[in-house]
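haha ok so turns out i had the wrong file open the whole time. this is the CORRECT one, sorry everyone. sequence first:
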Amino acid sequence: MKLSTLINRKIKGLILEKEPIARHTSFKIGGTADFLVIPKVWDDVYEVIDKCNREKIPYRIMGQGSNILVSDEGVEGIVIKINRSLGSINRVERGIIRVEAGCLISDLLSYLVNNNLGGLEFLAGIPGNIGGAVFGNAGAWGEAIGKCVEMVDIIDKDLREKTLRREDLVFSYRRSNINEGIVIKSVYLKVFEQDGGKTKDKILRYLYERNRKLPKLPSAGSIFKNPPNQSAGYLIEQVGLKGYRVGNVMVSYEHANIIVNLGEGKAKDVMNIIEIVKEKVYKKFNISLELEIKVW
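then structure:
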């Protein structure tokens, strides 16, 4: 593929050819993308998807890459990375804020503190941006972002803008009914008035507990969803796989549902561990673990 046949000079953002995706994921694992585009404005997104549609070029949408495992062979076509350039926040009415998809969760929480708002503190420490969080119904401490979502503005594969209202949206454990290939443009979130100091204290408490339990090495967070009334980490620990290593990736000693990259880790070794974990847990508990991370 020649760059000139893909994207013209209308793009204001960054275009990277043969870009290692490992540089753009929290796992620090993965091969190269033919092209990685980091849009600066929403028109960039429209332009790239239009070119892909016209020329039958595959494309993928990513946020901060905090819950994906990219194959060692890389990604064919174009990866569009929605980042904080597309991450504005504004209050649309009392109790509702509009947040663009590229907004980092950490930036959103800072906004709450600075504007004396609360209601989303449980997201503290979860990496990634709001688009990805809503797509996967991210959460912690028994709460999830889906319960706070009022509306979602999306761009479909035919570049039509639509607004999904609360009654159109379905959220379940680490899942929404927003399909792959749909671009989340902005999210309307419910918040409430609260002293910023109180919001900050809640955030710091969540961060303390989270950092106390989680590994510091590169990872994609929880590998498996928790089965109903069970903890995936507990099940993995019970089959003796804490510290189990293949190549330069390992089941974390701190949290058995996290695989860490010890340096120069390979996706094939992560997948090897995943299959061993699933097999051993099923054999002992008759429970089939379901992936929480996305595998590209």
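The chain has three domains: 3-81, 86-211, 215-295.
again sry for the mixup
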